[in-house]
Specification:
311 residues, UDP-N-acetylmuramoyl-L-alanine:D-glutamate ligase, nine-stranded mixed β-sheet, 13 strands, 35% helix, 24% strand, metal-binding
Length: 311
Amino acid sequence: MKERVIVLGSVNTDLVVKVRRLPRPGETVIGGTFYQNQGGKGANQAVAAARSGEKPVTLIAAVGHDVFGRESLVALQRDKIDLTHVKVKDGVSSGVALIMVDEDGENAIAVASGANTALSPADVNEVPDSVFESAAVLLTCFEIPVETVRAGICRARQFGVTTILNPAPVPEELPADLFSDVDIMTPNEHEIARLLDLPQIEDEAGARTAAKRLLDRGVRNVILTLGARGCFFAGAEGTGFLPAFQVKAVDTTGAGDAFNGALAAAISEGRDWEDSLRWASAAAAISVTRAGAQPSMPFRKEIEDFLKIQG
């Protein structure tokens, strides 16, 4: 049965400082609390899928031979994620993200990618066919090399696996023919502006225009996440706007990862489009009420209870 979620992506350690406000260029801001968490978009999304879903989750990723890598794998094992295809690379450090979070939960992030950049198409192609044969969804992002993302999407397409591309961070160059192999693309307003060289998305009309341009390039469905405003979706599954659930944000660092991981889990369970989007939006809403990225990913019962309250 095709039910597995494959996440192809990054593993990082997040080093976080809480600040009153984000510093301007050249400015030093005295921060408050410091904490360290496991992160990386791939790892975060895998945790979100594992916690919110009921189907097996496999992570394809890379870490270095160091304490950050070891601690990351231990954390992922706690969520029963299949780590068989996580490579431990020689000669490179594990990925590290330096994160500042202000009083409103907004963040600024710089990443030293380390072993993530060493995850290769060959690593993806070494994964047995049986893993892809059993998969319903492949979720990937650009914190690993573009050619590795492409290899994963190509293999997924060979086995009829639904492909979700979270185009973050947006690479300098993106192969034009990649778009036609993407079933669902999930940019935020900053990423879609950079992808298409557009001004910032200010309203639903702007979201509609931007989404159409991605659809014209061959993407089958676009989900444009707009933070506290909600998400706009367009494509083969229909067009519409889903307002965000209203919550008090503490830290928005992992919101997109919560959304994408929960979306992948929902699709793997055969939920319909509207239900999948609502499930993902609820996961993202819960995540921003907590500090950290991976620690903020909600569990299935938390999402169910949240949606019952929301009605």
